[in-house]
Amino acid sequence: MEIISMSTKEIDRLEVIQKVEDKRMQQKEAGVILNLCLRQIKRLTKTYREDGASGLISKHRGEKSNNCLSDEVKKKALDLLKSKYQGFGPTLAREKLVEQELLKISDESVRKLMIAEGLWKPRKIKKEVTHQLRERRACFGELVQIDGSPHDWFPERASGRCEGRAEACVLLVFIDDATGKLLQLRFVQSESFFSYSEAADRYFRQHGKPVAFYSDKHGIFRVNTRRAQAKRTL
Q1: Residue 67 pLDDT more than 70?
Q2: Distance CA 148, CA 187 (A)
Q3: Would you state the pLDDT for residue 223?
Q4: Distance, CA of 47 to CA of 154 (rounded, Å)
Q5: What is the mean pLDDT of residues 106-121?
């Protein structure tokens, strides 16, 4: 029995072409999976039909890549990177090697050479912090979100220009977390402790006391000075 050595990519290609040959997959679908055009799929199917699995093995296996750097170019590039272009980043170093030294070398090749020789350390990619969405509270009144939105709420169009009927103000909003209902809306001059107190008083009279309020990190909800904190603890 002949043993055929195949790469993972070649095995995946073989499985797809087998399905096409057995009429279990259309050629168009195979093209999408393998990222190949219809003409290439037809050619691979014909090759598989004539030569079997061995026909799908790359004919260039073991050969040196056309894009592979020659030892001469690699040595010259390294000598220059360690001397004339010491301290340069990969992008700038490659630019100088091509323009000034007339070397045919890619950005990626320069980057790999510099990393291998310890001439440059790639920056670590920061992991994205995924914040899990908070589930809404189960009952009405369990949590009420409060926020203020400053805006020119009363514009008026006249003579082709926008004229405000009044100065810009703040809209205070109280939203029930469980239902999303707007429970209190109030226009005020500024977002302050007193304006929130007046809005909260109206909310208490209409809906009663909630279990908790939730707000952003606005300064009016925080005691930032040490003196004020000290007085509060006395």
Answers
A1: no
A2: 9
A3: 65
A4: 74
A5: 88
* Tokens linked to 29: 């679908």
Element (H, E) at 164: strand 161-164
Q: Which residues contact 74 (CB under 8 A, 6 or more apart)?
A: 113
Alpha-helical segments (H) within the chain: 8-21, 27-34, 38-51, 71-82, 90-99, 107-116, 193-207, 226-233
Cβ-Cβ contacts under 8 Å for 215 (sequence gap 6 or more): 145, 146, 147, 221
Residue 192, judged by CB atoms within 10 A of its CB (0-12, 13-18, 19+), counts as middle
Q: Let me know: does 149 contact 173? Beta carbons within 8 Å.
A: yes
How many other CB atoms are found less than 10 A from the CB of residue 177? Answer: 22
Longest dimension (CA), the chain: 92
Across all residues in the chain, what is the average pLDDT? 81
The pTM of the whole model exceeds 0.85:
no
Q: Average the pLDDT over 67-86 and give the result.
A: 86
- Reported as a pLDDT band with limits 50, 70 and 90, residue 122 is confident
Task: Judge whether residue 104 has pLDDT over 90.
Answer: no
The C-alpha R_g of the chain, in whole angstroms, comes to 35
List own/partner pairs for 57-66 with CB under 8 A and 24 or more apart.
Answer: 57/4, 57/5, 57/6, 57/10, 58/7, 58/10
Closest to 147 measured CA to CA, from 210, 191, 194, 207: 191
Given pLDDT bands bounded at 50, 70 and 90, which one contains residue 79? Answer: very high
User: In this structure, what token pair is assigned to residue 48?
Assistant: 């598989």
Distance, in Å, from the CA atom of 150 to the CA atom of 97, rounded to the nearest integer, reads 56
